[in-house]
Amino acid sequence: MLLVSALISGIGLGSMYGLMALGFYVTYAVSSTVNFAQGSSMMLGAVLTFALTRNLGLPMPLAILIALALCALYGLVVEFIAVRPFANRGSDSWLMATVALGIVLDNAVMFTFGKEPRNLSSPLAQSSLEIGGVSLGVYPLQVLIPVIGVALAAGLFYLSRRTRWGTAMLAIAQNRSAARLMGIPITKAVAFAYALSTLFAGIAGVLIAPLFNVHSEMGTLFGLKAFAVAILGGITSAWGVMIAGFIFGIAEALVTSTLGSGYTQIITFALVILALAWRPNGLFGRAEVKKV
Amino acid sequence: MPKAFPSFTRRAMLAGASALAITFSAGAVSAAEPIKIGLVTALSGQSALAGEALSRGMTIAIDEINAKGGLLGGRMIELVRRDDEGNPAKGVTAARELIFREKVAVLFGGLDTPVSMAMVPLVNSEKVPFMGPWAAGTGITKNDGNPNFAFRVSAVDEIVDIGMLDYAQKTFKSAKPGMILVNNAWGESNEMGLKAALDAKGLKAVGVEKFEANDVDLTPQLTRLRAAGADSLFMVGNVGPSAQVVKSMDRMGWKVPIVSHWGPAGGRFTELAGPNGKDVHFVQTYSFFGKLSPVGERVVAALKAKYPSIKGLDDITPAVGVANAYDGMHLAALAIAAAGSTDGDAVRQGFYKIGKYDGLIKTYDKPFSPKVHDALQASDYVWAQFIDNRIVPVTN
After folding, report:
1. Which of A52, A126, B273, B285 has its CA 20 to 30 A from that of B163?
2. Is it the case that residue A291 has pLDDT exceeding 60?
């Protein structure tokens, strides 16, 4: 019983990490850069949905659509202010700049939204799923999150392997200048990837909010764990990232259920280090070919 | 005549200095000079509301004292506030300013235990009495100062822990309690306190589980506690994580009584935790709901008259802040009166001389002694629950 419930809650948690980590994959694949403050983007999705429904009284589906559109827009801003100026000059300062922009966003939200945690209720997180009168101990939403996560990973996989867009992305990743000479609009492609990345984080935020509390710092720990997941999965593979999310989430839940919560952080992060020592490019990643 | 200037200036300076000296010495003996009382607490951000409650409680008490002619032969009391933003470094800077520049007679602390803990060494070395109306950390009043200048009218972690166990045993016939605690210094201090309280009764917790302030799903921890056979839970955490505990239990379909520290009182617990939030019983030092004492009625009337935003009892929130600060201020005034001066050490000893005082929270009788610097004890605590958005005493 302990194991079953750990597995269920682990899959739920893992898919949330995976969903966020897909955002890292999307930008890294095209530009070898990421938005380190992905947690703040996730928070933005949740806070906007809350504000649009509770303060402006919009119906939930419309609020979610607008919130996600605004998240994508925020992704363009991140790329334009915090990544492009540095990446263009070959500097790695986008790393700090994205963190800084995330802190600015967190604080701006704190001032406008307030620091008090709020609740975004959802009909999918009211009562536990039941089979034949026996409660499974999970909300329908917790089943929906892995489904959406896997669907998005599959979509990305299809997009990158089977479409012209995917081929172009691959070309940019393999050789930027050659791609540019072939007429691929690199700047636009990178901006698009960032919009997609924050969109994913926003989706994660909207999905997680009803299970959690909405506040300006809700994304911090999530962002950190999602980055660990992205690295663990080998950041260059959509499936890898998603599967690593599941592994991380299940490991967390299993450690907590068997050894106790005092050990969760120590053991799960130690496992990440061990896994990376064993496979430096992540569990499912490929080493970059270094041309000499 | 450039030569004349230096001698003139020197003379002028001398004259000015003596004039100043006269003004100051005259000021020191003037009966009209106010007695300043300092308050360093969070006045902005998430805790602004609680900081405002402390200010209001103190202000009502000060108005009452001043209306009766003030202290020490007609000196009025004046409140001087500073914002610590919940930050220990800022708190100490503000405390220094109040002690050295404003020369406050008594310094009131605020919400956060770390801030108060940082101010305690300062008040002990500068011999300025300190009154804690909120922060519950045991070490604030049990410090190694000799003599110790820190007093408190609030809950104290180690006494809360004893109270939580007593309440769980009495109300829920709890025999196998489990603990679910936030993974930080506050959780740690209460883990020690609860273990000591259990030890004293020859009991043991069936399990101790920790959670991070940002954990989404607490079912793994709670599943362990359920498997260990917990028949009740002791909970320590702020309002957000406390709500996560309740929601996770709801999802698991697990219902055992939750006896909690006062974390849930700090926000919109009902909204966050859902309908089961009302089953959490938590500690408070005072509630304005229920039958009010004459002092209670007087304070409510004064609050309504002074603050137009207060229309009903719901608006006096957080109630513990108002009540602790009100009684703390009156006790500090009694200590100053007993000391007969604003000298720090005399006021400290003045606290020990306080006899009977009919306060808001209770009737205090010799509340302080060299060994006891906490005016409230386990029997003074009130157990409360959220009914809709109001914190009301549990009635059973």
Report:
1. B273
2. no
Average pLDDT over residues A158-169: 86
In Å, the largest CA–CA distance within chain B is 97
B219: chain A residues, CB-CB within 8 Å: 5, 9, 137
Between the CA of residue B51 and those of A16, B43, B82, B157, B358, what are the distances in Å? 37, 5, 10, 20, 25
pLDDT at B21: 52
Does the pLDDT at position B17 exceed 60? no
Percent of chain A scored above 70 by pLDDT? Answer: 98
Assigned domain for A201 exists? yes
Shared domain for B151 and B299, answered yes or no, is yes
A53 touches chain B (CB under 8 A): no
Q: Which of A213, A215, A266 to mutate to test the interface with B (most CBs of B within 10 A)?
A: A213
CA distances from B203 to B159, B180, B206, B235, B346 (A): 17, 17, 9, 17, 44
**Distance from C-alpha of B243 to C-alpha of B251, rounded to nearest angstrom:** 12
Question: B224 touching A, CB under 8 A?
Answer: yes
- Out of B241, B268, B284, a domain closes at B284
**Chain B, nearest residue to A259 by Cα:** B224
pLDDT for residue A215 is more than 50:
yes
What are the structure tokens assigned to B123, written together?
């008040």
Whether B192 is covered by a domain: the verdict is yes
* Residues across chain B: 396
B171 CB within 8 Å of a chain A CB: no
B70 and B185 part of one domain? no
Q: Which residues of A touch B210 (CB under 8 A)?
A: 261-262
Query: Which value does ipTM take for this structure?
Result: 0.82
Q: Does any CB of chain B come closer than 8 Å to the CB of residue A2?
A: yes
Selection from A39, A48, A41, A50 nearest residue A17 by Cα: A39
Rg of chain A over CA atoms, in angstroms? 19
**Which of A3-12, A178-187, B18-27 has maximum average pLDDT?**
A178-187
Structural domain of B106: 35-155+291-377
Domain assignment present for residue B20? The answer is no
Indicate whether B75 and B187 sit together in one domain: no
- Residue A7 belongs to what domain range? 2-115+136-278
Local confidence band at B13 (pLDDT 50, 70, 90 cut-offs): low
* Per-residue pLDDT at A200: 94
Domain endpoint, select from B233, B263, B284: B284
The per-residue pLDDT for range B209-237, each reduced to its tens digit, is 999 878 888 988 999 999 999 999 999 98
Do residues B358 and B295 make contact, with C-beta atoms less than 8 angstroms apart? yes
What pLDDT shows up at residue B7?
A: 46
Number of domains comprising chain B = 2
Q: Are the beta carbons of B253 and A128 separated by less than 8 Å?
A: yes
